[in-house]
Write a structure and sequence with these properties.
ten-stranded antiparallel beta sheet
């Protein structure tokens, strides 16, 4: 549910178990108020009125809902733009807000330049996650140096710990937990594709959470390309992060009338530890992210471990017949069915059947006790290619000069 107090210029987003609230200050800057346990609108207004307008050091107002470049701001910006005349920065001017079902949109423009910014929030029925993204609209040419999906602010605590996942081939999704230092910590990927080295996800707690107790804040970026998430902890105990697609050095050029929309950055607060956080994410992904599928998942047989690279059409057909007799519903030919894929060092990127191994290109099972969906699933790793691959299109190659 989304509620609004026009006098306090405050919005309250209420999920089944949490509240998220922010307001506009006198300069139209959106400022974070609360992300945590449930509040009434009246309680949110009282909390907002008691918040300081400046940091103890008076060097940064802090707590911005979406950080722009310019003014007394010294953290990593969520938005960085450069106009044709070299002017940078964005000065907030509030235009309007709209609520459609469980979606809130706040519209702003720059006070001087012809640039619009919409901040979007969406709730999902039955879930505590909050989905956020941003849309930038230009009515004059502008270079976009940074356009994050969202920034998230946490309350002041004596200490913070960050959980994230790292890995390598064969050791993906290794959980790592580190103390958050004062300053900035950057989680980034410049690969341009999904990789096992790091995931676009992080989780923070005040060094006091366990599996079933303690407050935990987390967020996941719905993006498989290059990305950057900048985590900041200030000397006064607050933690915040901003994140989105792309990394340093990239520029998106918008002409008059063009727009740029970010991927969704979804955040979650859980009061019941890492276990509660995990269960909420599992439920959200199951019901809101994954595509529709039958209630029962099919029984799958993957022939890779039986044959590895040494495969033939006859051999795979025989395996499929055996699998069908065991009740298998989907037969997967994992690797080595394409091009010159006879080892780890060749053929990756040649996405057509090997004519020597599969002269018919497709096969069937003649004596299976039930229809055998041989070749119903092929493994295809289009994220990479071997040097010897014949397919040249769409492959990034390093150019070495003379």
């Amino acid at each position: 549910m989304i509620t609004h107090d026009s006098e306090a210029r405050l919005w309250l987003l209420s999920t089944p178990g949490t509240s998220y609230t922010f307001r506009l200050d006198a300069d139209d800057v959106p400022r974070h108020v609360h992300w945590g346990r449930p509040l009434t609108l009246e309680q949110a207004v009282v909390i907002a009125a008691d918040l300081p307008t400046e940091d103890p050091g008076s060097d940064d107002p802090g707590g911005e809902e979406y950080v722009v470049e310019g003014g007394l701001r010294f953290g990593a910006p969520s938005l960085t733009v450069r106009f044709d005349d070299g002017v940078r920065g964005f000065e907030w001017r509030f235009v309007s807000h709209t609520v459609e079902d469980d979606r809130l949109t706040l519209s702003f423009t720059d006070r001087v330049r012809s640039l619009g910014l919409d901040l979007h929030y969406r709730l999902r029925e039955g879930h505590d996650q909050i989905e956020r993204w941003a849309v930038l609209t230009a009515d004059e040419p502008v270079d976009v140096l940074r356009l994050d999906s969202a920034a998230w602010t946490l309350p002041a605590r004596d200490d913070y710990r960050v959980s994230h996942v790292v890995g390598e081939w064969g050791r993906e999704f290794q959980l790592q937990r580190d103390r958050v230092p004062v300053g900035e910590t950057v989680f980034t990927s410049r690969l341009g594709i999904t990789g096992q080295h790091a995931g676009p996800w992080l989780m923070l707690d005040a060094q006091d959470a366990a599996e079933e107790h303690g407050e935990v804040w987390s967020a996941a970026l719905a993006w498989s390309g290059s990305r950057r998430i900048t985590l900041r902890r200030d000397p006064y105990g607050r933690a915040s992060w901003t994140g989105g697609f792309g990394h340093e050095g990239l520029v998106w050029k918008l002409g008059a009338g063009e727009r740029l929309e970010t991927p969704v950055f979804t955040g979650l607060y859980a009061p019941d530890g890492f276990g509660g956080t995990s269960r909420r994410w599992h439920a959200y992904v199951e019901r809101q992210v994954l595509p529709a599928r039958p209630a029962e998942r099919p029984l799958i047989f993957n022939s890779w471990e039986a044959t590895e690279f040494d495969i033939t059409e006859k051999q795979q057909t025989e395996l499929a017949e055996l699998a069908a007799g065991l009740g298998v519903e989907v037969f997967v030919v994992d690797d080595a069915w394409f091009g010159a894929r006879t080892s780890d060092m060749a053929g990756l990127g040649d996405w057509w059947p090997n004519p020597d191994r599969f002269p018919k290109a497709t096969a069937h099972c003649s004596s299976a006790p039930r229809p055998c969906p041989l070749w119903a699933r092929y493994w295809s790793g289009r994220s990479r290619a071997s040097v010897s691959a014949q397919e040249g299109g769409g492959v990034l190659r390093q150019h070495v000069g003379d």
